[in-house]
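Deviations from the work plan: none for this task. Representative record:
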Amino acid sequence: METIEIIGLIAATCTTTAFVPQVYKALKEKSTADISFTMYLVLFVGLILWLIYGIQYDSLAIILANAITAILVLIMLILKIKHK
Amino acid sequence: METIEIIGLIAATCTTTAFVPQVYKALKEKSTADISFTMYLVLFVGLILWLIYGIQYDSLAIILANAITAILVLIMLILKIKHK
């Protein structure tokens, strides 16, 4: 595998797993007051569109990365609604 | 332009601009207690790697989207450090 493809894989892993500590923090502290609902809503729409893009191009990397991130972002949206 | 490319452009616009309302909220309310520093740090590393990926492939879309998002994420990191 080329170096640049490895960099791409690490990049995808970072931008996907980044949301795990945020979900963990929100679940543990039961507080999301400082979190922007609009951010997570727009992000969710964007990730679903990336998912469609990935499906169209049969790109497992794009599909996987965006599906996992979309689930984490959806959890944040649900927590934000619950904490209102 | 093909429909799928338009979907990709809207997707990129969403996942980039999503961070604007979060930065605005953090600047306005001067509170980032519920924000995970780890999330933004890992995200920043990922975005810089995507930027390198985009530069390597000469993809203006990947470069632009990730550069803008990286700046917004960096602002969140600075605010998080400032509010400590």
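The helical segments of chain A are 3-17, 19-29, 37-56, 60-82.
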